[in-house]
Design brief:
CATH topology: Rossmann fold
Strand content: 25-35%
Shape: globular
Radius of gyration: 16 Å
Distance between the termini: 27 Å
Number of helices: 7
CATH architecture: 3-Layer(aba) Sandwich
Helix content: 25-40%
Number of domains: 1
Structural class: alpha/beta
Largest sheet: 8 strands, mixed
Length: 211
Amino acid sequence: MIAIIDYGMGNLRSVERALTHVGAAEVRVTDDPTVIEAADRVVFPGQGAVRDCMSALHRYELVDVLGRVMRDRPFLGICMGMQALMSRSEENDGVQALGYFDGTVRHFRHLTGGDPQLKIPHMGWNRLEQTRPHPLFAGIEPGTRFYFVHSYYVEPADASIIQGRSDYGAPFAAAIGADNVFATQFHPEKSQAPGLRLLENFLAWDGEPCS
């Protein structure tokens, strides 16, 4: 069973439909900690701002269960679900995030430098350059385009967790991961065939990274 964490942010049904399309037998969109802890795999999607995400996670009492499931099963963060894994965000003079990975969520103005040709939010298709092999990239060619919608990007303290980069004014981390946790800034569920392949790979993934 796959649990999609529902904390009131993002189009969760599109993620549910995409997972079902690639062969997931049972998908539960839920805010119930008991259901989430019983899941074999967990997906943490979302859209919006880290401040609102963290406020909702506390309101739904999901912070502790997130910490537990990230320790021992395949876990996929998507968009806001990636940014919330960092330790902090510079938004609103500083917001504490989940802290699974040490690093900061920064506004795109740091990369775009005010270039009027680089609109914020960064929205649309962009190339993903894979920085290291990973089971979730199986069958996906380097340089494949994925769909992004975001105004902030993550800056990990440990560059070794960066699994893929894209470029918007300068390179930024578009996929991160370590051990059984993988996360993407782009939306696999909106990325047509390549995104569906990544989700299909997630269904087959045993939680072990490439050696």
